[in-house]
Amino acid sequence: MDIALLGIGKIAVDQHVPAIRDSADWDLAATVSRNGSVDGVPAYTDFWQMLEERPEIRVVSLCMPPVPRFDYARKAILAGRHVMLEKPPGATLSECHALEALAREHRVSLYATWHSRQADKVPAAKAWLADKTLKRLRIDWREDVRQWHPGQDWVFEAGGLGVFDPGINALSILTQILPVPVHLTRAELNFPANRETPIAAECTFCHPEGAEVSMVLDWLEPGEPVWTITAETDQGTMVLENGGGTLTVDGQTDESLPGLTGEYPRLYAQMADLVHRGGIDMDLSPLRHVADAFLLGRRVTAPAFDW
Ligand code: NAP
Questions:
Q1: What are the residue ranges spanned by the domains of the chain?
Q2: What DSSP designation does 220 have?
Q3: Which residue's alpha carbon is at the smallest distance from atom 4 of ligand 1?
Q4: pLDDT at 122
Q5: CATH second-level architecture of 117-257+291-302?
Q6: Which end of the chain, N or C, is more open, meaning fewer C-beta atoms within 10 Å of its C-beta?
Q7: Where do the Gfo/Idh/MocA-like oxidoreductase N-terminal domain residues begin and end (predicted)?
Q8: Cβ < 6 Å from ligand 1: which residues?
């Protein structure tokens, strides 16, 4: 199937272009971006023009930041195109609900992707936790924003999520591996004095069976990132590290190898399947936790942040 990629920036270049190039399902038939392009691929700056001139492109994948994404998604659905959304699927829950309703009305596929759910060991972690009694779970998601988002001011502008931009990856794994849903009960959000989104956060969740569930996010972690979920249960301790790429149970590393390699190749395989089935996959639970943190979170002013 022909696909167009919109918003040619860091993630499009790092992950989407290679995943599409290496997939038997997809041909990258066009890009739409105000400045970016991909060698050898017809490049548009005007989305309307692409939609009009390229009716054979039935699928679009949106890689721009969350705030501008809604307008592109809406136009695409109204033009009868299937839509794949980078995470988070929108800047607000209401936008996402509106897109889902529109996709149902226009009978197109819509996929809210959560790339971290496709990490190698997430299915094994989910399977291991399924029959255990959880006592305590802690998310540690700490990285250096200067290394992972160099100069990307949108992450510190309203709607850019701040440290929840990586934190939502942890929440996408949490909501995938826990056999029961949790909900947020407390949050403390550290906003740099000169920015509109938090640079660090601590959250606590209510677990229906009384387990202690907490999350620490920090964007000023020097050196190697820490992307770890530790779950203590009645039958041992599971440590999911490396953003879901490494799983250890009571010190024993899970060496099993998944089939298809890579988070983004798996996302594109799932999008192909969704389009074939005419399906919609809009699980908003990770974004709901973030929205709750912003609703309930106590705001603390942190030192100003500059790149
Ligand atoms: P980015 O490089 O800053 O932005 C992607 C592209 O979007 C930009 O190059 C720009 O292309 C376009 N864009 C920016 N602002 C726009 C606007 N107001 N209207 C229309 N287009 C706009 O961001 P990114 O790191 O690729 O992240 C994009 C999305 O992917 C985010 O939702 C992020 O959470 C997610 N993501 C990022 C990473 C990562 O490691 N960076 C990993 C996984 C997921 P033009 O100037 O050419 O239009």
A1: 2-112, 117-257+291-302
A2: B
A3: 9
A4: 97
A5: 2-Layer Sandwich (3.30)
A6: C
A7: 2-110
A8: 7-12, 33-36, 63-66, 68, 86-87, 115, 148, 152, 154, 165
Nearest residue to 299 via CA among 205, 226, 201 = 201
Alpha helix (H) residue ranges in the chain: 10-11, 17-21, 47-53, 66-78, 93-105, 122-129, 145-148, 164-177, 263-277, 285-296
Q: What is the pLDDT of residue 39?
A: 98
pLDDT of 257 reads 76
Whether 36 contacts 8, CB under 8 Å = yes
Separation of CA 293 and ligand 1 centre (Å):
23
DSSP at 199? S
Whole-number pLDDT of residue 261:
84
Q: Cα–Cα–Cα angle for 12, 17, 19, nearest 5°?
A: 115
Question: Nearest C-alpha to atom 37 of ligand 1 is from which residue?
Answer: 11
Rounded Cα distance between 198 and 193, Å, is 10
Indicate the SS3 state at residue 109.
coil
CA distance 267 to 61: 11
Q: CB count, 10 Å around CB of 101? A: 11
Task: Output the six-digit token pair for 179.
Answer: 């056999």
pLDDT, one tens digit per residue, over 181-223 is: 999 999 999 999 999 999 999 999 999 999 999 999 999 999 9
Distance 98 CA to ligand 1 centre (A): 22
- Active-site residue, from 10, 75, 87, 132: 87
Q: With a cut of 50, which residues of the chain have pLDDT below it?
A: none
Task: Encode burial over 43-74: b for 16+ CB neighbours within 10 A, e otherwise.
Answer: bbeebeebbeebeebbbbbbbbbbbebbebbb
pLDDT value of position 19: 98
Pick the CATH number of 2-112 from 3.90.1150.10, 3.40.50.720, 2.60.120.280, 3.10.450.50: 3.40.50.720
Is 10 among the residues known to form the active site? no
